[in-house]
Specification:
alpha+beta, Arc Repressor Mutant, subunit A, 3-stranded antiparallel sheet, elongated
Length: 227
């Protein structure tokens, strides 16, 4: 190991964390959820223009990653190694990490539509379950459907071949604005919402994007996805 290079790298990372504004923003991300650039700037009580330079420094040192979606830029910690390092530093202070408290209306928090797919607590759990069970796997910025996933979706009644042939992205992580962690977007996400509506797992509200989880849906989702 090049000891001098390691020392310099450590100093660079420590310098990035040491700034009060940057440390506030990093600690706000310890719950694993993403925050927008505007929210993080507000938490640190700095201007958005000032925050831009801080974000660049944090990304340069590999502490955060940025995900652009629409007009928003979401930031998350780069990996669990960063989270553990921050938690270790917090353990020798008298303060803990801030708790994320979404302000989403209750009617939209559990389940709602996001374009043509499902969003909210339920959809995030479905996304995490599919990824955890190996139904989908990361492929660049998108998700690829595995053989296991294709088999399981076919058993649910989803025509996988038709999805693959569509002229749109099959599956990708869509940042959930209330949960601040991804749910499933793309043709597969739309097919899952269609399935849930068809089987009366969820029902639409007439004048809102909100979806109501039915008793049948709660049982089915728990059995299939643990959601």
């Amino acid at each position: 190991m090049d000891v001098e290079a390691a020392d310099l790298s450590l100093a660079a990372v420590a310098g990035a964390i040491a700034d009060p504004s940057r440390s506030i923003m990093l600690c706000a991300l310890l719950d694993g959820r993403a925050r927008t650039a505007t929210e993080l700037a507000a938490l640190a009580d700095i201007a958005s223009s000032t925050a831009s330079g801080h974000f660049a420094r944090l990304r340069e040192q590999g502490l955060v990653q940025m995900h652009a979606q629409g007009r928003h830029r979401y930031y998350r910690l780069s990996n669990t190694h960063v989270a553990r390092a921050l938690e270790a530093l917090l353990s020798i202070t008298d303060r803990g990490a801030p708790v994320f408290r979404p302000s989403t209306p209750c009617a939209l928090k559990q389940a709602r539509t996001c374009y043509d797919h499902c969003a909210g607590e339920i959809s995030v759990k479905v996304h995490d379950s599919m990824l955890g069970q190996g139904w989908i796997q990361v492929q660049g910025k998108d998700y690829a459907l595995t053989d296991k996933g294709a088999d399981q979706l076919a058993k649910l009644g989803i025509e996988v071949d038709c999805l693959v042939q569509q002229r749109r992205r099959l599956a990708y992580p869509c940042m959930d604005w209330s949960e601040r962690t991804p749910h499933l977007g793309g043709a597969l996400g739309a097919a899952l919402l269609e399935l849930m509506l068809k089987r009366d797992w969820v029902s639409r509200h007439l004048d809102s994007r909100a979806l109501t989880l039915t008793a049948r849906g709660a049982t089915a989702l728990a059995k299939t996805f643990g959601a």
